[in-house]
Each structure stands twice: as C-alpha cells, then as structure tokens.
Design a protein that fits this description.
heterodimer, A: mainly alpha, about 0% strand, B: mainly alpha, 3 domains, about 70% helix
C-alpha cells in the first residue's frame, strides 16, 4: 500500500468548483485557487505571487491571437456583418442548419490539415458565421425571439469548438498528439504520430454525425 | 530570427494603443481603470521579461483588482453608423468578404513557406508569426482600400476588446493557474487517488474511471493537456495498458479525445467557452456550454465505448 500525499493542495480544485458554482468572477476564482493550492502545499505567500507572475509571463503567447481584433473591427466598420446578412437574405437555400453544418465540415477538415488558425471565434464566428446563421434563422422564422436568436449564435460558437477539437487530432504535428507520443516514449513505448492520429478519425466522424444531427434538429424545431 | 519577442512587442503596442485611446476617451465611465487595465497588460507584453517573478505577480494581481473594480469598462470608440455600413455595402458589395481571407491566407502560406526560409522565423512559432503577419497585412490593406482615419484601427479593435472585457485575459490566467497547480502537486495527488476507485480486474470500470477521470479533471482544469499526464500515469498506463494488456495507442489517442469532451463543458476553458459568449454579446456567460453539452456527452460515451471495444483485441 503506497502512502497518500497530503490532500491539502486539492483546496485549489475545491475553490475552482465552488467559485464557478456561485458564478464568482473567474479572474478572482483563479487567484483564489492559486493561493488555495499554494498554501495547501505549504508555499509562502510571496512565493505563490512569484509563481503566478512567472507563469503569467511564460503564458503570454496565449493572448497573442487578440492581434486579429483590429482586423475584425475594421472589417465590421466597413459592413462585413451586413454583407453576410445580405448574402443570406438572397440565398434562401442557406438555412441556419446548413450554414453551420458546412462550417462544421470546413473546420474539421482544415483542422485535420493543421490549419487551426484559419478560422476561430474572433476571426470567423463573430463577424461572419453567427450573423449569417442568425439572419437565416430570422428569415425562416420572423417571430424568432431574442432567446431563440441567442441560441443560434451560441450554437455557432459551439460548432466552431466541436469542429476544431475533433478535427485537429487527425493532424500529425498537433500539440496533443506530440504530448501523447512524448508521454508514451517516457514510459518506454515508442509510437508513430500517424498511429495516434488514425485513432482520432472514428471520433471525428462521430462528432460530425452527432453534432450534424443536432444542427438539423435545431433547424426543424422552428 | 522572428519569434515570440517580436510578437510580444506587437501585442504590447496594440494593448498600449487601447490604453491611450481609453485615457483620451472623455465619455468613458471607468476611464482611469480602463487605462490601467490595458496599460498594465501592455507593460507585461513589452517589458515582462525585465521584471522579477514577484514583480510580475504583483502586476497580475493589480490587473485582476482593476477588473474586479469594473475595468476595462465601455467607452465610446468612434465607429461607423448603420447608414455608413449600408452605404459601404452598397458601394463594395461582396468584395467586403475578400479581406476576411487575408489572415487565413497568410496563415496558410506562412505554414508552408516559413519553415523553408531557414532561420528567418522561429520554427516553433510559425503559426503565431503567420497570424501576426496576417493581421499587419490585413490592417494595412483595409486602411489603404477603404481609407478610414488611421486611428480607426485602434478604435475598432478597442470596441471589440471592450465587448469581451476582462475575459480577454482569462485564458492566459487559467494557463498560469495550471502551472501553479503543477507546482503545488495537485496532479500527483489525483493520480495517486484515481486507481483507488477501480474494483480489481473489472475492465469496464477501469475504462470508465480513465475516460471519466479525463473528462472531469479536464473540466476542472479547463485543459485536457493538464489532465492527460495525470490520468494516463495514474490509470491508463499502469491499469489499462500494463495491467490489462490494452493497446497504448488506442488508450492514449482516444483518452485524449475523452478529455476534449470535458473541455466542451468547462468554464475554465475560457477561450473556447466564455470568451465567445462575450464576443457574441450573449447575456448568459455559459450559453456556449449549454449549446454543446449534448454533443460532448454523446462523444464521451462513444470514446469510452471505443477504448472498451477496440483497445483489448
């Protein structure tokens, strides 16, 4: 029987769960959880602050994609959202379900080719996909209320996530495949990235089917 | 070599532009707090390497304190009216879609071309460098083609950034929390506890504990990458692979995908679930999670069944 380590650092996880349950501001939850885990592990307060600061600077690359906001803003200023809506008004066969289904397939296939950055919530969902799906839903059901419009917009964002997550692992050089390969290598098991990425295909096809059926049903409910 | 240093300088300048624009915006309800929020983020990008870890930590706490006090708030960035946009649409028609292809096009070209240019671009940062270059080219193209006032590049970006608000910085904060958790040994504890939940020799229970653990730990951490070493080291490798003869390729590859199902449910995965709700002005912060939970649940079942059925042949 191995001895268990001290459980006190789990206070950090408890704080995360509790914080989100009471809908506290997530930034405050993160800071509280860092202090909870750190104090639980016996770290001193200045060391916890230093650890957070070091990690924050190391992780700056996470915020670099915000560079696209000026591009999106300038395109919106010129009427990009309006252009998307006008296109949908003219194209009656483009229902909200079909728009999102095509986007799902596009996102999965491009992510599977490693092109994860060519679309995304800021680049494509906000300026194009969500307004087009919303316009199509309103065209087909003029009585659609705000809650219904918001459901269509949320589904557009959900479709981007599903397409990205269950497409990217088919690409050989994606971080998650390299992480699995590295972990198994550390345990003395040598695998090729191709073996791993092949096993992402069944789930990718199922994701397209499952989410596709949900999109089709979303269109039918109206 | 072009890499993170240049990208951080560029990002720092963009955030700095928003800070100055906020300071000059007399209509802004939280003008100084907004200036401080964008300004400190800009400072971290431009000069974060020059501070000690503790100083960076204090700056981070100041950013969070400003956010809790109402930063960045919403000002009145100059933008076009509905009539302006209708006129622009009438003048340019579907050509307005073309600039939307610049960022993806440069990302695509950069992915293929940069690795062939030797040491010009840091090979580990090809994607982000392509994104940054695409943003520069797209802004330049839009300024030349549509001739808005040059400051519009700052104002239009700030309009969207204020729409997202403090959630802008949440993904980076959560990634940082992951590192602090690792330092505190949270993963080791979960890895030590997880095998205790499995009845001896029951394959289905072991697979469920593995895929369930991947989903739940990912839900809490917001990132399947954090969960994978913990659950693969705690259950996947010792119990499923070494104990029961499972195929490590199937267990590893599909186990990661079971974790992705947890990401779809996690408020901690802010850039996928919380930021888009803000970008789309949805009143419910969890609207995107609500939209995707049925897909996530069904795919988790599929991944669990796939390991159970295909890993032990």
């Amino acid at each position: 029987m191995t001895t268990l380590p001290s459980l006190w650092p789990l206070a950090g996880i408890a704080l995360v769960v509790a914080g989100f349950a009471v809908r506290a501001n997530p930034l405050a939850v993160v800071v509280a959880a860092a202090f909870g885990a750190g104090l639980g592990a016996g770290m001193a307060v200045p060391d916890i602050i230093a650890a957070l600061g070091k990690a924050f600077v190391q992780n700056r690359y996470v915020s670099v994609p915000w560079l696209v906001l000026p591009v999106i803003g300038l395109m919106e200023r010129a009427g990009l959202q309006e252009a998307g809506r006008a296109l949908i008004e003219r194209t009656r066969s483009a229902t909200s379900a079909r728009i999102l289904l095509i986007y799902l397939g596009f996102r999965q296939i491009t992510a599977a080719l490693g092109l994860t950055q060519i679309a995304g919530h800021a680049q494509s969902v906000r300026p194009l996909i969500a307004p087009m799906a919303e316009a199509a839903a309103v065209r087909d059901d003029p009585a659609l209320d705000d809650a219904g419009r918001n459901r269509v917009k949320a589904m557009a964002a959900a479709t981007d996530n599903v397409g990205l997550f269950f497409g990217e692992d088919i690409f050989l050089a994606i971080a998650s495949i390299l992480l699995i390969k590295g972990f198994l290598e550390g345990a003395g098991i040598v695998v090729e990235p191709l073996q791993l990425s092949v096993w992402a295909i069944p789930t990718a096809l199922t994701a397209f089917a499952v989410h596709g059926v949900r999109l089709w049903r979303m269109g039918r409910r109206r | 070599m072009i890499g993170l240093a240049q990208l951080y300088a560029l990002t720092g300048l963009v955030f700095g532009g928003w800070a100055i624009a906020t300071l000059l915006d007399r209509q802004h309800a939280a003008r100084l707090r907004g200036f401080g929020f964008w300004g400190l983020i800009s400072l971290e990008f431009l000069a974060g390497d020059g501070f000690t870890d503790f100083e960076n930590g204090v700056i981070l706490l100041a950013i969070v304190a400003l956010a809790l006090a109402g930063a960045p708030g919403k000002g009145t960035p100059a933008t076009s009216s509905d009539a302006d946009r209708a006129a622009s649409l009438a003048a340019h028609g579907n050509r307005l879609f073309l600039p939307a292809l610049i960022v993806p096009g440069v990302a695509l070209a950069g992915t293929f071309i940069f690795p062939r240019l030797g040491q010009l671009v840091d090979p580990r940062q090809v994607t982000l460098v392509s994104l940054g270059l695409g943003a520069i080219i797209a802004v330049a193209t839009l300024l030349i083609w549509l001739r808005p006032p040059a400051r519009a590049a700052v104002h239009e970006g700030r309009r969207l950034a204020e729409g997202v608000g403090w959630a802008m910085i949440l993904p980076q904060m959560l990634a940082s929390l992951g590192l602090v958790f690792a330092l505190a040994g949270v993963g080791d504890i979960v890895g030590a506890l997880a095998p205790l939940a499995i009845p001896d020799g029951n394959r289905l229970a072991a697979v469920l504990a593995f895929t369930g653990g991947m989903a739940i730990f990912t839900l809490v951490m917001g990132n399947a990458f954090a969960a994978f070493p913990v659950l693969m080291g705690g259950i996947g490798l010792p119990v499923l692979v070494q104990g029961m003869g499972g195929d490590p390729v199937v267990v590893g590859a599909v186990g990661m995908l079971a974790g992705f199902c947890g990401t779809l449910l996690s408020p901690m995965a802010a850039n996928f679930n919380i930021v888009p709700a803000a970008l789309l002005n949805l009143p419910d912060r969890y609207a995107v999670i609500r939209a995707q939970w049925p897909t996530a649940a069904l795919l988790w079942l599929f991944n669990t069944a796939l390991i159970w059925g295909a890993a032990f042949r």
